[in-house]
Design goal:
PDI; Thioredoxin_domain; Thioredoxin domain-containing protein; signal; mainly alpha; protein disulfide isomerase activity
Length: 139
């Protein structure tokens, strides 16, 4: 798996939204692994605004293509303020609306959405909520 992981790291080395890293849980990374409840090796964990501070364990395929597909589909932020090519029309409209608002309003909206993110909702609504949060964090 190490060659696929290293290739994934190379693929995302210039990314502004994805960081690929590794830790040796048998030596210098032991405290980090204990804090994040790593029990077996190798373990892949990912961290997003949805996963909480300990992250979630990845259980998909271990090939480069499997890992890249997961990162691209689930983790990579494609809608950026400085490059809207990856934004949907809905995201662009949301971005324009909130760019015009005062910083205090943006902060209040971000806090409101963060409070909602732990609640139960349909997957498509949860996805849109996190897309909005991602945009607001960039403002």
């Amino acid at each position: 798996m190490k060659p696929a992981w290293d290739q994934l790291g190379d693929e995302y080395k210039d990314s502004t939204s994805v960081i690929i890293g590794d830790a040796d849980c048998t030596s210098s990374g032991k405290d980090l692994c204990d804090e994040n409840e790593v029990r077996g090796y190798p373990t892949i964990k990912y961290f997003t605004s949805e996963t909480g501070p300990k992250g979630e364990s990845y259980s998909g395929g271990r090939s480069f293509d499997d890992l890249k597909e997961f990162v691209s589909d689930k983790l990579e932020v494609k809608c950026l303020l400085d490059n809207t090519d990856g934004c949907s029309t809905k995201e662009k409209e949301f971005m324009e609306k909130w760019q015009a608002k005062a910083a205090a309003e943006v902060t209040a909206q971000k806090e409101r959405l963060q409070g909602m993110s732990g609640g139960s909702m349909k997957p498509e609504l949860k996805k849109w909520l996190h897309q909005r949060l991602s945009i607001l964090k960039q403002l």
